[in-house]
Each structure stands twice: as C-alpha cells, then as structure tokens.
Specification:
The complex is a heterodimer of chains A (about 120) and B (about 120). Chain A has about 120 residues and is mainly beta. Chain A is built from no helices and 10 strands. In chain A, the strands form 2 sheets. In chain A, strands 2, 4, 5, 8, 9 and 10 form a 6-stranded mixed beta sheet that branches. A 4-stranded antiparallel beta sheet of chain A has the order 1-3-7-6, with no helix packed on it. With about 120 residues, chain B is mainly β. The N and C termini of chain B lie far apart (about 40 Å). The chains are: A mainly beta (about 120), B mainly beta (about 120). At the A-B interface, strand 4, strand 5, strand 8 and strand 9 of A face strand 6, strand 10 and strand 11 of B.
C-alpha cells in the first residue's frame, strides 16, 4: 500500500517568506509526527498529533513554527518568516497509535527546505 | 532527558566483513530502542526495535542488535555486509509507556562499504 507522502520534495525560499509543508500519512494511521533533520542538529522531534487531539508543541523550535492536522489525516507544517537556520529536511512519520511506541513509525521521504 | 550517542560518525567496512555500529543511551526507565537506516534519497526505514524480553533482537536485512542494560548500549550487528548496506544508520530511544515526546535520535553513523 501507499506509504507516507510529503510535498513538496524540495522547496527553495527567500528569508522572511512563509512556507507550508504537507504530509499525507498512511491511511488508518492515527498518530503523526514531524521531525527535522539538519547538519548541525541531526534528527530532532518537532511535534506530534494523535487523531484530532490538540498537538504536543513542546518540540517546536520557535513560535514561527506551527502545525495543524485536518480531519485527523493530512498535516501541514508552517514556518513563518523563514530564517536561514530553518534550512533542513523536514520528515513526517505516522503510526497506528501514539499510546505506545511499540507501534512502528513509518517515515516519508522528507521535504528539503533551503532558505536563501 | 533521554539522549542517544553514536560515537562513530563514519565507519568503513569491506564487503563481506562483519559490522558493529555502537549506540549508547541515557534514560532512567526502561527504554524503547530502535535502529533506522536511511539510504541516499530515501526515507528512514526501521531495521529493528526492542521493548522487552529477549535482549537479542533480529531485524530485517540480516541485522541484529543486543540490548545490554548494564552498559546502556544497543549495538547493531551484521555478520557479513553487502555493498547495498552503505547508508546512514540512526539509533533512537523512546519513552516506555508513552510516545508523547516522539523519538530521540542519535546523530547517525555513516557506513561506507569498500569493495
């Protein structure tokens, strides 16, 4: 079946512009995670959603970052007033549930963001 | 806070030789431990995971890992590597009994296979 998909695969933007990154989880997966992979920081957890519940935003690096999940499925990560340090690969993952980490997280191919 | 250390940034192994990638974690309770592989241009793929029980875990592609609580380690092994194993390998730890904080990843080990 289809895996996690993300769009766009690559995004180049100018400093100060807003960007939206999209994630389509595997059908039936209720948990959705966003991670950021950058050269200096490695892979870091940003935010997760369980169904339609309010997300845990504790991992977001600044208030310029926000995320939403519509209808418990597709998620959008928005970065406002982008900065050069936001350049990274943004990975999305989904799993059947978030109540236990025994559920495998399946990762998408990522969106490579470059802020000029 | 939990943390994961992968001491080797790069490892070079000859094709057919054995492999061991090191992973040490810092966590107070019983951790959930994972190894993921990321090939160039590909997403992260789960190799194996440990939650409880037998400390030697078998994964896909011929990989295995052993949980050693006394050493806070979860090293990944393969008896004979193939050129297709060249990739970035990430060890990760999760909080047992909940997944609210996502996974904490190590910085990765880049595996190079020599012919």
């Amino acid at each position: 079946g289809a895996g996690v998909s993300q769009s766009p695969s690559n995004k180049v933007t100018e400093k100060g512009k807003d960007v939206e990154l999209r994630c389509d989880p595997i059908s039936g997966h209720t948990a959705l995670y966003w991670y950021r992979q950058s050269l200096g920081q490695g892979l870091e957890f940003l935010i997760y959603f369980q169904g339609n519940s309010a997300p845990d935003k504790s991992g977001l690096p600044s208030d310029r970052f926000s995320a939403e999940r519509t209808g418990g499925s597709v998620s959008t990560l928005t970065i406002q007033r982008t900065q050069q340090e936001d350049s990274a690969v943004y990975l999305c993952a989904s799993s059947l549930a978030v109540s236990t980490l025994q559920e495998t997280q399946y990762f998408g191919p990522g969106t490579r963001l470059l802020v000029l | 806070a939990q943390s994961v250390t992968q001491p080797d940034i790069h490892i070079t192994v000859s094709e057919g030789a054995s492999l061991e990638l090191r992973c040490n974690y810092s966590y107070g309770a019983t951790p959930y431990l994972f190894w993921y592989v990321q090939s160039p241009g590909q997403g992260l793929q789960l190799l194996l995971k440990y939650f409880s029980g037998d400390t030697l875990v078998q994964g896909i592609k011929g990989f295995e890992a052993e949980f050693k609580r006394s050493q806070s380690s979860f090293n990944l092994r393969k008896p004979s590597v193939h050129w297709s194993d060249a990739a970035e390998y990430f060890c990760a730890v999760g909080e047992s009994g909940g997944g609210a904080d996502g996974l904490t990843f190590g910085k990765g080990t880049h595996l190079i296979i020599q012919p």
